[in-house]
Amino acid sequence: MRKDYADSLRSIDIYVGQDHLLWQLWNQDGVTQSELCERMGCEPPTLTNMVKKLESYGLLTRKKDALDARVTRVFLTEEGRQIRGPIDEIWAKHQDKMLKGINLEEQLILKRLLQQIDVNLSE
Question: What is the pLDDT at residue 36?
């Protein structure tokens, strides 16, 4: 499933993980790189490489904070906002594929179980 998902993202020149970074910015643009690390649960070098790559694609830009020049904020470009539609389509298609044949009640149970697993791993 991951390979199929990765192949779908690559069709729009995005790699697994980069979609998550974009999603974070779609929810709140202009956050710091350290905030993105915390939200995504990744190491600073990993995030820096991802930001550089997406910046080279023209999907985001980095700017120094107006009040504290030591802080760098990450912003979407217009292209970064526009790619949301294609990524949303890929997410929806893969969710439908994964949940095919699983009724709503079973989906709710699955969601609760996965949330519990997430809590367990966070402890």
Answer: 95
